[in-house]
Protein 1
Amino acid sequence: SSNTAKRTAGAGGSGSVSDNGDGDSTGSDTIRDGVPFIEDATEGILIGRDSTSGWERIEGEVSKAAQPSQVHVDMNGGTVVPAAALKECRDRDITYYFRLNDDITWAVNGLSFTADPADTDFRVRTDTRNIPSKLINEVADVYPHTNLTIEHDGDFGFTAILSVNMGKENEGMYANLYYFNEADNSLEFVDSREVDGSGRASFEFLHASDYTVILRGDALTDKSAAALTEESFDSGDTTPGSSGGPVNVSRKTGNLWLIVVSIISFLLCGLILFMPDKKRRRGYAA
């Protein structure tokens, strides 16, 4: 519709390079000073660095916005959204889009709030090592994966939708999201989303923690993910930082080795019994 048509602010530049989702992207034509501004919005809301720089100006535009409205904020190197800015959209059909860089964007709709918002750090670090590698390998197997660590501590108090760039070369693949349950030292399947034509996948989050995204050619469900996990490994020591402990082997793999060892033992016994008899026959023939 006309009231959500994209408008260009003419500021912020292009061609910036992300730095692990911390908003510190740089480019020759981009000023990253940590001061956010509205880069795009529904008609009737001011946009551009000159008119909307800083949270106070952004909050002022959101406070008088009609419903429904969309407000796209270039975080400009920052990652923290103050509680006051979030409160301006609470219980209203207004959607914020917080663009940290070209790879990471968060969307928050005011109708999704379940608690008073606090200052929220939307920083996302990728390829962190908070999840034990053995645990990831047991679930991911040969499939590529990307770890996500969300900086905010605990529940958001609203639904936050993360759009993350998985790479355009992965279009049509499925991004399967797992939550790292630190208490149980386990990975819990959350959701599966198809990577779109721009190489992005979007997931809903209610709280911040450590996650991993496994790329596969098929979309997992709760049932298929549980079956895959049960088939892939038995319980074992995957304590973070431990260098020892047993290597987890699946039940099927263990049974297969028993069969192979049994066959080899049978062949060796036959060879031992056959060789003396063959020697005796040669002696008789002589």
Protein 2
Amino acid sequence: MRPLFIRRARQLVTLAGGSAAPLVKEKMSNLGIIENGSVWIENGVIVAVGPDDELTRQFADRLAEAEVIDAKGKTVTPGLIDPHTHLVYAGSREHEWTMRLHGATYMEIMNAGGGIHATTKATREASEEALYDESKRRLDQFLLHGVTTVEAKSGYGLSLSTKSSSLTSPSVSMTPTRSMLSQRFLAPTPFRPNGSTTRTGTSA
């Protein structure tokens, strides 16, 4: 495999110093930015980061064999993480946004057939193939925007069996980009279709 040399980024964000423990307070503003920065990668592993002139000298005898990406004028960051997603579902509730803009409450929307139960119904009625296609499309969009890791909740089952299956179904387990997934069981929602707040399951 050829080395990968990402060169001349306007800003290379390293987040240096945040590996041992999360940065807090004023330290969060220190992103470890290298101006005109470059990255040298071997076999999928970052070997070196630094100013472009330094890495050019360091790997001068190997530049000809490397695949070069010119990142001039761009920002290079570590892969982004989305720690809360509901990846596997069907249907759309975009029209509910208009209802909210006109003053409808969530309970009013749910009692009109919308809300989480609309998504639950659509998800239960969707085929595995449809759920797979939609889940893959969403993951592809994540990658396109620089998100390399997502936490996928079970979300829309409203029962133990359907929530569990949303984590083990082919729509998740057979997704080509499954390596970017962290799966999490989400205990059944406390809301029932009739608006009751009686819990339908135990917390996880």
Protein 3
Amino acid sequence: MDNGGVNATRIPASTPNGHLPEFYSVAQHSVLCSQLVAPEFAFEALMHDAAEAYCQDIPAPLKTLLPDYQRIETFVDGLIRFKYNLPPKQSAVVKYADLTMLATERRDLDIDDGMAENAILREGKAHEH
């Protein structure tokens, strides 16, 4: 990667208040994801958040409220996938590694982003109907 990849290594991964006790980058997250998958998926896992080098990392709850941002990020992701001969859609194994890392980060970095509570509320509402 060129300048965009370098920039991503300087931007801390998103947290609700934007601060962690120690620096933790999107690049670190991606490297760790790449280590969770079989070798044939490692490069795709390494690159799974590459669009954030150009579009920035936005927390998922906010991202859902920004359809224009989502379209731009999807477009940039598609360009990166094409350039590096990655599958057009993220592989299930890479998505699972990403979710595993996100859960691990929330636990190990003590991130309370309200996502657990939101999931519990959604689950409860689903059972009410």
